[in-house]
Amino acid sequence: MFEFLAELQENNSKEWMDANRSYYHSVRDSHIKWLDQMSEQLAKIDTHYTPTSGKKAINRINNNLMFHPTKPIYKDHFGAGLDQFSKQGDFYIHLGVNESFIAGGYYKPKPDLLLKIREAIDYNGEELKKILDKPSFQKLFGGLIETGDELSQAPKGFDPNHQHIDLLKYKTFAVETHLTKKQILAADFNDRVIEIYLEMLPFRKYLNKAVTF
Asked: What is the pLDDT of residue 113?
């Protein structure tokens, strides 16, 4: 996979991809098989896991040039979302030549979902705070992803003096942990993915419960 992605970035064109289509499909099929196996393992350790096939999980390798016309035609990574209870709230695995990480939660959710998450924090923010402050969670993720668009004031309809006003100001409720190429190629990588999944699980459960009510 890494070798293919490196070659693709050196030859990021439709002509190269067309000439190496079988190479691409071989790598993609191999990754889908791994995702299938990973999904089966996660389903065994989480009774509420949403079975997600590798074909459904994996994202297109083409960049969306309609919204990002300056980007290259093809991405520098393979991205996939397992446990797709919600497409926005899935367990996302990003493996690439320039950056690799595992993330989960709601990245810039739609207004209706964002409101539901904030309402959950308003009602029971202590539970989320406890999850975020857990030492092992902090060590792995460090806290919520900061996107730079956090509010400077309380969101409309919420008390400026709310005890969890710091959380209510967020517009993204997601976490991530970065991976090195050495970690990905290690024999125990599957175990590491499971460890990350389990550490993130209470956080994702809190959010998924919030958006379903």
From this structure: 95
